[in-house]
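Checklist before submission:
- one chain only
- standard amino acids only
- sequence pasted in full

Submission:
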Amino acid sequence: MGGPDALPRPNPEPGAHSLARSLSWPHLVAMGVGAIVGTGILTLIGIGADKAGPAVLLSFLIAGFVCACAAMCYAEMASTVTASGSAYTYSRVVLGQVAGWVIGWSLILEYSLVVSAVAVSWAGYAAPLLHDWLGLPMALMQGPHAGGVANVPALFIIIAVGALLLTGAKKSATLNLILVAVKLSALALFVWFALPHFNAANLEPFSPYGFARHMGPDGVERGVMAAAAI
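Returned file contents:
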């Protein structure tokens, strides 16, 4: 079998247009950091701690190791197949057009579901504030599954982000840079103020639900691996 040079590379068609390079290295770094330090660090820590107890620290290490393996694969493919398209292009070059088509549409489905989940999570935090400050009825801030009519804040944030993306890559990347800086600053301040109150006694018992993923008597999955799988 040949090395990376043996892989076919997608060649642009005659007369094809290329994307203008408008992002600087701070924008690219912020996009990477924003993808790594996502909304999960703000919304899923409590859920993970409920599943694994203090051993959620091990869950983070396991999940981080798995993500590092995936990152190494993406880095190798990106340096081998020098074309835009991410997993779609990599699979199309290596496995063929059918695999590329399937993975490309799978990515669209994945991103659609992720955007919806993040918007609903954001609306869950914003709903009490909007209800208290603006007097908006809770029926307009919850979906039918929660007894409401429509989740208007979630719909609004999706439309707002979509409109921002339509203004161009540089403007949306600049806002992302600002938001990533704010998020990292908030996390740093949290650690700064919480660290003096650290109490090692709260780590006992360290792993009350064990390591393996299993169903607890209350019908909730427990264990270190259950938290790592979130």
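Reviewer check: The first strand starts at residue 214 and ends at 215.
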